[in-house]
Specification:
By secondary structure, the protein is of the alpha/beta class. It has helices spanning about 10-15, 20-40, 60-65, 80-95, 105-115, 140-145, 165-175, 180-190, 225-235, 250, 255-265; strands at about 45-50, 70-75, 100-105, 120-130, 155, 160-165, 195, 210-215, 240. The two termini are about 20 Å apart.
Length: about 270
């Protein structure tokens, strides 16, 4: 019998036409029930993009997670204020059915950290080269502690108060290990960040009450790798490192998906057997 997935309607039609035996019909439906039950035991995954990016930056990670049976969401965030972004995340979390892992990249880590202790269906946090501030801290204070990172050295602000990255810095430093053609596409679709978020003060961080995982991008030229290691250490995160630029979900999607699936296993909902 073929392993190709078939709907119940298709199976019924095949059975009526005599194209499959009752035994094969029973085998198909039993397998479908088992798969559905297995998928239901895994956490949902909500992917949070950062600044100068959007939901499609997770495409390759989504494809891998969906193939392994996870229900995935990668919504678009307005990046207009931290409050607006947290509200969007809560909006998406409200209709997740069951336990949910939240995965944040870069400024996306700021968004999920700001959930605080009020995230009833969230069972874990996965930081991907992401900010993990503590109570009372701001992005502006953190970024002002040293020289501007190469990817942010020429950040410019438009008349509406949104910051953008110029093409050269984006291609060479923000997405430095991505092919130039793809990096230029990513530059073209970048979503600007309201510069007001640099002054937002973090409340009680979500990582203080949830298990956390952290992926350090060793060649990051937007968020210094040492800062990433400090975030991971103080939150007690399970940590992995990759020789990646600031966008490992694009240049190393399988490794990012591996970390997410390991987090899923650790919170008691195993990934599908591949």
């Amino acid at each position: 019998m073929s392993n190709e997935s078939k709907s119940v309607q298709e199976l019924n039609e095949l059975l009526e036409r005599g194209e499959i035996s009752p035994e094969a019909y029973a085998e198909y439906t039993a397998a479908d029930i088992a798969l559905s039950s297995s998928a239901g035991s895994r956490p949902n995954v909500v992917l949070v993009h950062g600044a100068w990016a959007e939901g499609s930056c997770w495409n390759d990670v989504i494809e891998r997670l969906q193939a392994d049976g996870f229900h995935v969401r990668a919504p678009q965030f307005p990046l207009s204020s931290l409050a607006d972004d947290v509200a969007r995340l809560r909006q998406v979390l409200e209709f997740q059915d069951g336990p949910t892992l939240v995965v944040g990249h870069s400024y996306g880590g700021q968004i999920m950290t700001a959930l605080g202790a009020d995230a009833p269906n969230v069972v874990g946090l996965v930081y991907v080269a992401a900010f993990g501030l503590d109570e009372g801290e701001t992005l502006g204070e953190l970024l002002s502690q040293g020289p501007a990172a190469p990817a942010l050295a020429h950040l410019f602000t438009d008349a509406r108060g949104f910051g953008w990255l110029p093409e050269d810095d984006f291609v060479k430093h923000f997405a430095g290990d991505v092919g130039q053609t793809q990096a230029r596409v990513l530059y073209a679709i970048q979503q600007p960040l309201a510069t007001s978020v640099f002054g937002d003060v973090m409340g009680v961080p979500a990582w203080k009450s949830l298990p956390s995982w952290y992926l350090v991008a060793q060649n990051d030229e937007a968020l210094p790798p040492d800062a990433e290691r400090q975030f991971a250490a103080r939150m007690g995160a399970t940590t992995v490192e990759l020789p990646s630029s600031h966008v490992p979900m694009i240049s190393h999607p399988n490794e990012v998906a591996d970390l997410i699936e390991k987090a899923a296993e650790a919170v008691g909902v195993p990934a599908a057997t591949r």
